[in-house]
Amino acid sequence: xxPRVFLFLLLFFILGNFVNCQxxxxxxPQEVSITAxxxxxQFSWYPxxxxxxxxxxxxxxxxxxxxxxxxxxxxxxxxSIKITNINENQFILSTSIPFNLAQFSIDxxxxxxxxxFNINLSCNxxxxxxxxxxxxxNGPGYNDFENFHSFxxxxxxxxxxxxxxxxxxxxxxxESIENSDLYLIKWSPYYIxxxxxxxxxxxxxxxxxGGNYFKTNSFYNDVPTPPxxxxxGAYLPKNISSIINEFGFGFGPLYMGKVLSNSNRPFLVxxxxxxxxxxxxxxxxxxxxxxxxxxxxxEPFNGINSTEFAINSPAGQYSSQIIxxxxxxxxxxxxxxxxxxxxxxxxxxxxxxFVENYKLNEYIYKINENQVIKGFxxxxxxxxxxxxxxxxxxxxxxxxxxxLILTCxxxxxxxxxxxxxxxxxxxxxxxxxxxxxxxxxxxKYLLKLHIVSKNELFxxxxxxxxxxxxxxxxxxxxxxxxxxxxxxxxxxxxSLHKIQLIDKNRNKxxxxxxxxxxxxxxxxxxxxxxxxxxxxxxFNDISFSINDLNLLNNTGYNIMYIKSxxxxxxxxxxxxLLDPVSISINENIRFPIxxxxxxxxxxxxxxxxxxxxxxxxxYVILFSISGKIYNSLLSSSAQLxxxxxxxxxxxxxxxxxxxxxxxxxxxxxGFVGWTFRIFDDYNGFESGFxxxxxxxxxxxxxxxxxxNDLIYGDKWNGTYKIEIPIDETCISQEFVITHVxxxxxxxxxxxxxxxxxxxxxxxxxxINFYNDGIIVTRLPITCSSIYPQVTNxxxxxxxxxxxxxxxxxxxxxxxVTLSITFNLTDENNFNHNSNPIFYLTSPTLDLIECEATMxxxxxxxxxxxxxxxxxxxxxxxxPIFISIYGLVYKNxxxxxxxxxxxxxxxxxxxYLNTTFSLNNPIITSHDQVYSYGGKIWLYGFGFNxxxxxxxxxxxxxxxxxxxxxxxSISTYSRAxxxxxxxxxxxxxxxxxxxxxxxxxxxxxxxxxxISPPPPPQTQTPLPTNTPQTCKGNPQCGGPKQGxxxxxxxxxxxPWVGLxxxxxxxxxxxxxxxxxxxxxxxxxxxxGIDDDSVSFSAxxxxxxxRELDFKNNIIKTYKFDKWIQxxxxxxxxxxxxxxxxxxxxxxxxxxxxTVITEWFNSTxxxxxxNQNLIMNPSSLKYNINITTYPFENQLNTLQLxxxxxxxxxxxxxxxxSSKDFGDTxxxxxxxxxxxxxxxxxxxxxxxxAIVDGNLNSINNIILNDxxxxxxxxxxxxxxxxxxxxxxxxxxxYYKKLIQLDPDFxxxxxxxxxxxxxxxxxxxxxxxxxxxxxxxxCVGGAILITIAIFLAKKYKYQLRNIxxxxxxxxxx
Length: 1370
Known about the structure:
The chain has 1370 residues and is an all-beta fold. It is 3% helix and 48% strand. It contains 5 helices and 107 strands. The strands form 23 sheets. Strands 84, 85, 89, 90, 91, 94, 96, 97, 98, 99, 100, 103, 104 and 105 form a 14-stranded antiparallel beta sheet that branches. Strands 26, 27, 30, 31, 65, 67, 68, 71, 72 and 73 form a 10-stranded mixed beta sheet that branches. A 7-stranded antiparallel beta sheet has the order 44-46-49-48-47-51-52, with no helix packed on it.
């Protein structure tokens, strides 16, 4: 059966069963059917919040007709349920239902008649008694996205779960985390100040009206009191309670001060009851940190003239009233949009806007889904800054089925209009008929679409979120054409919520999750990254190569390790650091997490910026589209900590600014400008950019600043200068600094924009001048020249394009030269220092700028020319519109020409046609490449499986001819991957196609990553036995058997024991057992048959069990079916595999190898750096265990060993005993099980080799029964037998553990006397914990030693039952 048929049958079975159960046919023709497709398999809901008593249901259904009729029918609206058409086959049913069950009737009208269905839905009450919510994680956390937060885990929701719960919002709010059973608690800033110590408690109500309190320790519980001590608090500007003047649009006032705290996040918040702003650490170290807090940021124009803000901190509460004077603020507001109209000529639509008082701001121009944001000179048609026109042209197809929405927006004011539909065309929308999603890396995937469009495809849009849009160029076409073609699109793994297809007639269709794209077989548009449900238990253990970091002038190169037995190895995961410095540099940087098949761990190599915050570094692990796990959810062992650092989280600041001079009159050339000092006391200044504009003529001056421009000082405190040339033709105006970006050596920016959205006041480089006001950025000049008013635009005499058609899919020949000639009406007043700009505009409003240069001026005419290379795929399939703006006269009058103006120049010079060749290999981009090498993905166009990839490692030189071929691992039309070697130097990639077409040479400069050393193995101190008192009578057995030392009795061979009164028994080598590792050792008695025995000793390694950190048993394993190999006469090998299966289908083999070795004579050996003496007739076990699948790094293993000694000599004086303790000479433990005068003696060295390192381990004496439900009495300790269970505690390990116990038989000088036949009721002594240093065993092995000591003149062989293995619990 083919996979597609199987998938269809599976879907049919699943969906069909739910149709039968939840959507029921009632009456009418049965050719029509309704199937629920989203939520799949779900007809049960909960209220969106526990404060509601009904459920908002939205059910997506599929309508089908077995006759193949299209459309299959129509759903008829009812009063109780709303029906929304997605397309002919899909509908959304929306309704609100009360608690308990509800039934709705749906009628379908088809060609065969009216068919009725009943839909059964249920609305469940939220009952915490059933779901058992609990706060989990490592206590409250903090990051700049969620602020103070905790996590609530709620299991057991049988249906679409609630999004939030009713609670006291002055304490906190609850938000659902998608694709999980977790909720986020965001603690209110109004609650925290009064609860800095002790517990944080929030009451959450369920649908039954009951309130449950959920508690967690305060974020500051472990911080020494007081957690906050604020000093030197100050406002900027200083007079905060008086009228203030913004320092640029959206730059609100600031509060700053020093904090003496042991917490890296002391509590500082400013709020006015509606909005709250948390403080940001800027510089300093533990107990001495500068903080800054901005408020009213980006929202000063909401009509509020005054408002009261409170500053809350544990050191006290302060409040101030901030009063706005709207007149002062309006001085720097953008001008008002007076009107908006449009005109259309053929396929060009032009927005016409009238504006007053231009304030050097930008405008947003929007045509339907597409927009462009630009300031002067784009769109500036004619006028001056007091009163002017804006004309912007865009592409318009001659047939539109949808009205056009044209918008022009300044930062504060917007104006829109609708253009009525033109002559309607064919209304058939495009159709997605097939799609494939291929994951390329943890950060990128390839979306392959097959699209059929009757009216030619015009645009593809993807939606990273529900309210954001990402344009996809049609150069993504890899085969076919715009009527039917295949497209390959590279997108982020967290960016696909839905796609939108638009054709040239503006017919649109959207494909959201679970939308049907094919009925035969059934196929839905579903990303595997959307529906991936994560579980905190997926993350068994997280650790770092280095912790407790030193970031003092050191970059933190590190590796995260994630152990998981359930996560799919290709799940798209990435790491995002949330420390303040990483967010300041780039809050969107993500580090990929890849599975390492060698270490069997997920690994992430990441870089922490130097001079960062002290304490814990917050981070989040991102996977699928919405999955995220914050570090505050994880155990303390998963926290990343910084011990040594000095925080520098503020970009360079301007500490001194001087205006060179103000000009009253100018008689000749000169310069004006600013001298300023840039201060950055720790990281130091690196580079910057400053933009200055003229307030009247809109002249633009751009300055790039580096350390090479330093006049005096150094990078930490240096003086620089910018100068603007001025001559006698100047105009009286102000030069205005409109933009500043300064970067320190850590790439932390300080940014100033006079007008911009989303300003960050704390990053303003002019913070030190808040008291002086924005006037420091304005330099007035007064010139004596007076210029006449210009009223007429220059006439275009000629417009030339070097080509009318350009192939934007070729590697070369994508350049175009544009030239334009004007007839100047007032040549003397024309500003020859200001060059116009050619703009090339795509149909989706993408722009290319080409600054023209003046080529010649002849008899009142002036000619400008520019040459520009068109980017790959730009504008395709065209046309690319031409416009030119920025001609300026000396009196400030400006003029420009939209595409509609160029229509009348003739010969279609207003646009470029585009084509796109599919077979030219071109590399355009790549994923981030680090110096550690490995697999990298490159993106572009025209790749194929038959291409040859070449690489040139420059190795510090510029030798561009040293290319050699390398393998391409995976290749698609838009992407391919290669493996590169480790290198810190740049390298070049190029491709030669099968047809011999050579690609561009693509230069890559890898990001330096210095691999950290492997994490040091934490080793417990190797044990040393404490000195013992010499025992025995005589002491130490007398001078022939041993002597007394400072550590205890030292025995002479063959004597052993604490008192040197047990003697090693010499027996023949055992015989091999071919079925299992059981060994029978016998000692013949003089003249007696070998079968005549009086004593047997049995040792069984019976089970392996895993324990959690509370010593609760999680799993238990037993072992059978050994593979046996004879190595030599005295050595045998036994191997067994333990297989563990996981939910994702992964199978892990844990192999146990046991080698038994018999010693015929005294032998000195070494194990784990401990010298050992092997006595004659002793048996040693060498046990090696490979990787065991621990559920958690905190878990341990126990290897259960059962030892038993049994005597066949039974008389009135028979007795048994057992003893446990430390040896004297070899730092081991011993176990001695004695019956009469014979005993089994086992030695356990107190160390093991764990992953190649020496580690200490322990042994524990257990109760005599492994399983409480076992009724077998044979294993009980009696007067004729002695038995013990020993658990060898095994620590967590990763790859391999090695053990080395040994056993022998002793003849004792003193008989046992603990449990005797004459006093059968004597009780056993309690077992104690003994320190056995053994490692981790991944299998259970049974090795039985039967030593039969025949005694002359004694009893016949007693019928001894074999030792029975207990039934293991799984």
